[in-house]
Amino acid sequence: QVQLVESGGGLVQAGGSLRLSCAASGRISRSNIMGWYRQAPGKQREFVANCADSGRPNYADFVEGRFILSRDNARNTVDLQMNNLNPEDTAIYYCLAKYAAEGWRDNWGQGTQVTVSS
Prior knowledge:
The protein is mainly beta. It has strands spanning about 1-5, 10-15, 20-25, 30-40, 45-50, 60, 65-70, 75-80, 90-100, 105-110, 110-115. The strands form 2 sheets. Strands 2, 4, 5, 6, 9, 10 and 11 form a 7-stranded mixed beta sheet that branches. It is globular.
């Protein structure tokens, strides 16, 4: 009942930047958490960043100040500005959203590929 569509992935060289975007639709509600996970080849999916509707962003330690998560609650979107990318950031990035109206179940997007070359 909730659909998430990610965009903004691509191929960049080390030190470059990308901006990911996730748009939510369907059975969404005011009270929610939206954010990003990523999964590199051969590795488990890991947390990147998230933020509640009225909270401040939370970041994984590996972000080290390079990424900025922002929300537009009126448009039901969450963006992830990624700067100073390195090859370790290469992964499929997935949007995650949870809504009070759904009992806080996980909703996942299909993912967008980020590839960082050396």
